[in-house]
Amino acid sequence: MRRLACLLTAVLTAVPAIGGCGIEQTGVRDLGGPPVISYSPTWVTVYLLRDGRLEPARIPVGSDSAKNIVDTLFRAGKQPPKPGLTSALNDFSHHDTETTRYYDEAQRNDPAGNLGYRLSVIISGEGEISREGLAQITCTIRQNKQESIWSIEVTRLFPGPPKTWGEHTCFEFRNLAAEGVRLPP
Asked: What is the pLDDT of residue 98?
């Protein structure tokens, strides 16, 4: 038995070029680094306040969905990207966003008619939202979703009974723009 084991060991060491499954062995080859998923953030413009006036700030987001844009606006107010910027939204939290079709009755059956959307921004928090806060939400959405979102409606869901501040476009807040800032429509 010992002799058979020695013979088998001698045969296996005599044929080093062939592996156990009949495939020839090769040396280690470097084929480059591992595959990497590169991430390139999307940049959005949010409107914060400097001395009560709307000022744009560019912030990276994971996606440019309306929900992510509004979440970014609320976060940016708590950690402004530039010194001196503030937010009228710090006492509120973004709860949800809902998009609904918005169209003129005259265009309802016209397939070539331009259809847009109304974005309902649902917030939570105590008290009344200021005109500056409405402007921040409205102009931030209009800046980043100009073509598809025609109006923005802001509603507080809780605490207390739901309250809406109506539909808005950024144009109505043009007097809140900082000097040299051009707001979206």
From this structure: 92
